[in-house]
Each structure stands twice: as C-alpha cells, then as structure tokens.
Design goal:
The protein has about 160 residues and is mainly α. About 75% of the residues lie in helices and about 0% in strands. It is built from five helices and no strands. The two termini are about 25 Å apart.
Length: about 160
C-alpha cells in the first residue's frame, strides 16, 4: 500500500510541478503582453484560474498522501493512547464519507452536468475543469483507507 501511495504521490508531484510551471509562464506572459506590448493576452486570466484550481486540489491530495496535512495533535496529549487510536480510525472514516459524497459523487455530477457548458475564452468543457474534484476525491479516499489500515496494523503490533 505504501509503494502505491508513493507512486501516486510522485505522479501528483510531477503533474503539479508541470502545472505550476505553466501557470508561472502564463501569468508572466500576461504581464509582458499587457505592459510591454500594450495588448493584454485574452486567454491567460482564464487559464490561470483553471490551473490554480487544479494545483490547489492536487496539492491538497499530495499533502494527504504524504501525511503532511494540518492536524491538531495537541488534543491527543489529553487523551489516553487507546482513545487516540480510536480517533485515528474514526476521523478517516468520516473523511471517507465526506470525500465520497461531496468530492466523488457531487464532483462527478458537477462534471457530467457541465460537459456541454464551455468556458468563454478557451472554449474548454467546464466538466473537464471540474473533473479534478472526483479524481482527487478517489485518491484521497484511497489515502484515508491506507491511514486506517496503517493504524490497525500499528495497533496489533503494540500488543
């Protein structure tokens, strides 16, 4: 499971780096075209917005996979270790439910419902732009299942 998680995270990292490079070039071109050539580029604003959405969602997914997301471990200092283990199993279950309903199910509906709606400048199907939601939702669910499995394995090894 860890090897698969590492491979997915490497892939997400590469895609995120490519998208970040594209957004930097896009915004740089916008500045140059506006202030040097006095003819602002039309597509750069829309492309930068779409890329920012994808970079944000991929970055969040990457942080879940690397276990680098924000957590409040301070509360765990007040609880008994057995209760902390229970919390570390229950919270990912709630996250799976949330990701399943909101990101995967809702994101899939949003993606399908907006496939015939096109962006004003780039003429991309908006469903393509929104497709990042169910994709990252599925990956996040996979990561949370891994969290639960890791916690259950560590629970058995401590006895």
């Amino acid at each position: 499971m860890n090897k698969i998680r590492d491979c997915i995270n490497k892939f997400i990292f590469v895609i995120g780096a490519v998208l970040l490079t594209i957004i930097v070039l896009t915004v740089s071109w916008q500045v140059v075209s506006r202030y040097v050539f006095n003819s602002p580029s039309i597509f750069t604003d829309e492309l930068a917005r779409f890329l920012l959405m994808w970079i944000g969602m991929l970055g969040t997914t990457y942080s879940f996979g690397a276990k680098a997301h924000l957590s409040m471990d301070y509360l765990h200092t007040f609880l008994h270790p057995s209760k902390v283990k229970i919390i570390k199993i229950i919270l990912p279950i709630f996250s799976i439910i949330f990701m399943g309903f909101v990101m995967v199910w809702g994101g899939t509906l949003l993606t399908l419902n907006t496939m015939k709606q096109f962006s004003p400048v780039l003429h991309l199907p908006m469903g393509l732009v929104y497709s990042i939601l169910p994709m990252t939702g599925v990956i996040n669910i996979f990561y949370f299942i891994g969290y639960i499995m890791d916690e259950i394995k560590s629970e058995g090894s401590e006895r």
